[in-house]
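FORM 12-B: Structure-to-Sequence Request
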């Protein structure tokens, strides 16, 4: 939209969250470097340079070691996968981490893992768009969902580890 205040013309646009066709942002792209969170940006005509958002800090290349142990049972993980696909994947991502720009749950911090029940069942992040799912899943189902996400993180980490094959020296 465009508008005028005290004779100065402004153009406001919605930006972020979309356009990726469900794909992860490629390294080097603006969305990868600065993030792709939804926001409203207003430009003043003749107003000068537009400040950039701070760059996303990435401590390591590749998938990080998950901060919690993988202790879910096969049954929990299977149920958790069903629940994830039904309730979470549309917003958070597909099973390979490609998705909408909303946090990749394979990358949860130790603190987020500790708060998982409160986030999902109590809606402690409702102000940030993550409402309670207590009316959709039980506590046991939430445990299964969490077990699945932990297993998914470990699987992604394992996939990036060097594969030592017979007749090849171990990579260093």
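FORM 12-B RESPONSE
SEQUENCE OUT:
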């Amino acid at each position: 939209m465009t508008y005028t205040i005290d004779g100065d013309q402004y153009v406001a646009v919605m930006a972020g969250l979309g356009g990726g066709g469900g794909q992860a942002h490629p390294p080097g792209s603006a969305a990868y470097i600065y993030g792709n969170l939804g926001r409203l940006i207003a430009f003043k005509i003749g107003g000068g340079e537009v400040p950039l958002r701070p760059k996303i800090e990435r401590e390591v290349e590749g998938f990080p070691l998950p901060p919690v142990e993988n202790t879910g049972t096969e049954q929990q993980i299977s149920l958790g996968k069903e629940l994830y696909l039904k309730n979470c994947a549309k917003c958070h991502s597909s099973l390979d981490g490609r998705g909408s720009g909303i946090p990749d749950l394979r990358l949860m911090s130790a603190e987020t893992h500790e708060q998982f029940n409160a986030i999902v069942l109590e809606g402690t992040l409702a102000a940030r768009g993550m409402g309670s799912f207590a009316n959709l899943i039980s506590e046991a189902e939430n445990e299964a969902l969490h077990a699945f996400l932990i297993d998914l993180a470990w699987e992604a980490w394992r996939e990036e580890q060097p594969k030592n094959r017979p007749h090849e020296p171990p990579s260093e």
